[in-house]
From TrEMBL, chains A, B, C, D:
Organism per entry: Clostridium pasteurianum DSM 525 = ATCC 6013
The protein's name in its UniProt record: Phospho-2-dehydro-3-deoxyheptonate aldolase
Taxon lineage: Bacteria, Bacillati, Bacillota, Clostridia, Eubacteriales
First-level EC class: transferase
Pfam family, one: DAHP_snth_FXD
EC code(s) of this entry: 2.5.1.54
């Protein structure tokens, strides 16, 4: 961390300030220019809050040199993390696809879609049992009944299940029943929940908040990892911008950005990003070309009658042909090279 | 709700679609132009999901005419709501000020600040016991001990206490100990929590999410109200934009916007918005002039040593002089006039 | 255009309002519900300003059904436009790559880079002679001398040249010397300039403004086309969001969005979007996979000593290997199918 | 400027890099920590491009300590600038109000509104003769005829006129006829135009771009000032965010932010910000309370029939009562105190 003191700050004040920093176990280098005095802090600065430093009257600016995350940081863990899920895994170079409906609606529906997406090449089944809805009057999911139907679909297809947890209340049930616990964008900074997730060892699919920076996403992963659970998969699902044609703006530059800063896998959700089914194909292809570790795609056999998000679901046939193209694009995709990009 | 069908949609498809809407209890008016067929839905459309409608192949566009919130809607409750808190209240025209430190640090600190802000004219004491922090390595608050100290400060000053709840885990404790439960920006769409808040009758201070629209803020209030708790106070605290000079951009147009759409009180948090203590004065004055029902301001007797957010806290003396000006500005503030602005 | 009148508006006022609309040559359908009266306007509504309609006291909401652009609209021109440039072209399915340095610095530099990018497969040479710089103290380009050097590079390689025009002052010179006139993001709504561009027939590369919506980009294209010049190539180059890791956020969903709404070619600028050279490869691959008609890439033989934007330039060797991959990805890219996506 | 070199950069590379910086006339302080080498640059760094520095392979991060603007910087010009306009002025503590219609429509209209706003206390008359419109099919203003009508209104009321210049074409005419040349948000970074404005001495009202940072606004002012014209008045008119209820989000924190960084006057445009007439009153009151040097307000005697922006115009009677309140609020407004806020 580098601290620039205000011009004309007295030596006494600077010395007093330095002493306080040293008391926190840091080595402080000072550099007196003709106008600004600059302090360089050496040591573990992750526990130092830059905003607290900024609160000091004599501080002009603070620059954080080292990222504030440790366990999620590629600097201390240069190889890609691979998250084990059942017999499969996510991360480490090969493309993994999670597919299924927005929400579980019936046994027939979820089993039939599970079979379709498996056949097309998906490795995991998604499906919402508990649904986060902007309106209290909208369909809130089949809840526990939905969870049972997901388990039936898993039994029939062998596909591990990925489904969203809405808070701490159902955590134990999810640990028991589910293969990957999905944390939605709106809960990315639900710190009470993140702390609980750190205590289990179930893989967590952590979605980027609607307006979360990449650093904040990594800090939320750090919460879980600092608690002891290092099985975190990150997910970019579109960010909120001023553009209204699409529901959100998919930020594919998050893939290389995260690859450089972190060893965690990063997957892309093209369905929620655009909010329109016909954009799923171009955005999926783009995500794979840009080096995503995986995709999570909404597939529905009857989108027009889906209980939620039908407008962004593709049909099984479309999904099949998409999967075929993705396998080809994957061969030429970008991949992170630590020697080329370095630190 | 108005639905525009795609050009060249066959009559059969349109008729089939209309029947489905009628089955949901709606009256459907149709208007066949030369190119587009337009459907107008009459009845309670709050349970109809516009995105589900949009999923239909033959639908070109959907326009929502009526806001999707009912209990929070001024249309059905023209008078301002006044939320009772102890002997005091928030809403209904007079200015209420909540003040105190970012976090409770010691008995001396919280009691002394409480006395200072009371003397300056504050009606409520704020202070964090449980703190939402971006980093797991930052100070997380004094937790239960902090809550006890807040109660001591309340006893010594008579000021009702406002403090943040981080999830459902501590809800019962907060219902017992706290006067107003604050829900932070990051939990505005923690739906599991919102549902629980609907079951109690404690006043809720609901902060606008970092990138929540005004409609989404009102929909989160609706969640709480739909559950049975109508004691909701809204709070604008700055939204995330591209500007980096300030931490967030305070959106004061949210005051008139909310006043027109809802009967709920709306207060402003100038401290978190800008993230700089010297902006608290201009933004507080602006908020009062624009018709805010109240302010929530961070006051600290030693900002440079505060455990969090010192850079955005003002000192008690500054707070006192600010309060004096605010009382004068209040006399000329904007206030909503239903006859002038109407619906 | 659909207009919803406020509830309880008197019939007299509505009739008077309808008459005014009819006087503008429109047919007005009316639909009286129990609460809202809805007007549907039939005819050419592009000349009707929705904000002016909204200004009427009795109007609740306005919904625009038809896009406000005509000449750029795919609805009236279903086939892709192909823009001819010298012996080459942009648009219509095949990938076109424009490459070269941020700014022209010397004859050696521009000729050598031109030869390198041509050999790697680029079809056009880019290079700034007049540079838009945020600071008046930054290098402003070699100006007319730079233009001469570009012409030499064209002569030596046969590559048509693409370079930025900063205003109307140099327009005649550019018409004479340049193959494609580039209009930068900051000038996308420089309407005086757009009107002049409509009077010539030189191809225009129109970059999306930093915070322009897709519709606004198409409206700026419409300005040029309405003036008589239909040779417009659109360019997405990253939009401004709250994320600070990248300079801008590349919006690849703009590709399918524009393909559906317009017949104009759309190319991608991965260099300016991210502002970091090592993101050019993943973003270029993603752009091609998502169906872009072309790319504009900054290539420099000595980025660390470039006079501008060196941090986002790749070296010729990197460019060559990238071009090889792009040709493979192109085979599996998304392409717009009017029968599948329709209107 | 502070430069952090990448860890493990060889001493040779660092020394070579330092030499290059020294060759630009800078003194370079170095500080070798255990991991990072840090360089502090002393001297005039405004001509150094941080992005160019960033392009060097061995550079990890760059922090700019001093703002990149000089002539607009309060650091070198501590007193408020007061811009003289005819017998009046803008800046320096007293509130100045510019009022009038969006566009000039007829002699009757502009003269009558001019008389009304003068009587209510406005000091300047606004009115568009050349209009920037998103659509080429919208009313583009009365152009030269409109300019003549503004001159008639000035003659009849004595109010200096403020009107928008769209490019360099009409510059000479505006210098001759107009009192303040307004540069719209879309032209804030039209650098060709800014350079021409630097050569005249007419006061310039420079509007902040739709997504311009405060620093970029000040850099555009610097362009004009660096050319020789120091008569610049800044204007905040709402920035583009994700919120759709209002047209733009008025950023009132720009007032204190600009006051701290610059000596130039800053005025607020509440009409364009919200895009709704009934928000003009609360936002105007807020702007004055927050310390704005002035306001620019759209007033129209017949908004429903205005040729543009009627929905955001208030009537003369409303304007009069607003002016009366503003005079009271002004007495308690925030004002910048260099001793309190310092640098």
């Amino acid at each position: 961390m580098i601290i620039v003191m205000k011009p004309n700050t007295s030596k006494n004040i600077i010395e007093d300030f330095i002493e306080r920093l040293q008391n926190k176990g840091l080595i402080v280098h000072t550099d007196f220019g003709d106008k600004y005095c600059i302090l360089g802090l050496i040591g573990d600065t992750t526990a130092i809050d830059p905003e607290q430093i900024q609160a000091h009257d004599a501080v002009e600016k603070v620059m954080v040199v080292q990222e504030p995350f440790k366990k999620a940081n590629r600097l201390f863990h240069p190889e890609d993390s691979v998250i084990k899920i059942g017999n499969g895994s996510i991360g480490g170079g090969k493309l993994s696809v999670i597919a299924g409906p927005c929400s579980v609606e019936s046994e027939d529906q979820i089993v039939s879609i599970a079979q379709d997406v498996k056949q097309a090449g998906a490795s995991f089944l998604r499906g919402g049992a508990f649904k986060p809805r902007t309106s209290p009057y909208s369909f809130q999911g089949m809840e526990l009944e939905g969870l049972e139907l997901l388990k039936i679909a898993r039994e029939k297809t062998g596909l591990p299940i990925v489904t969203e947890l809405m808070g701490t209340k159902m955590l134990d049930k999810f640990v028991e029943d589910v293969d990957v616990i999905q944390i939605g964008a709106r809960n990315m900074q639900n710190f009470e929940l993140l702390k609980e997730l750190g205590k289990i060892d179930k893989p967590i699919l952590l979605k980027r908040g609607l307006s979360a920076t990449i650093e904040e996403l990594l800090m939320s992963a750090e919460y879980i990892m600092a608690g002891g659970n290092e099985n975190v998969i990150l997910c970019e699902r579109g960010i909120r911008t001023y553009e209204t044609y699409t529901r959100n703006t998919l930020d594919l530059s998050a893939i290389p950005a995260i690859k450089r800063q972190s060893h965690l896998p990063i997957i892309i959700d093209p369905s929620h990003a655009a909010g329109m089914w016909w954009m799923v194909e171009p955005l999926s292809k783009a995500a794979v070309a840009a080096g995503a570790d995986g995709l999570i795609i909404e597939v529905h056999n009857d989108p027009a009658n889906a209980k939620c998000d039908g407008q962004q679901s593709i049909k099984p046939k479309k999904f099949k042909s998409l999967m075929d193209s993705l396998k080809e694009i994957e061969k030429f995709k970008w991949s992170f090279d630590i020697n080329e990009i370095g630190f």
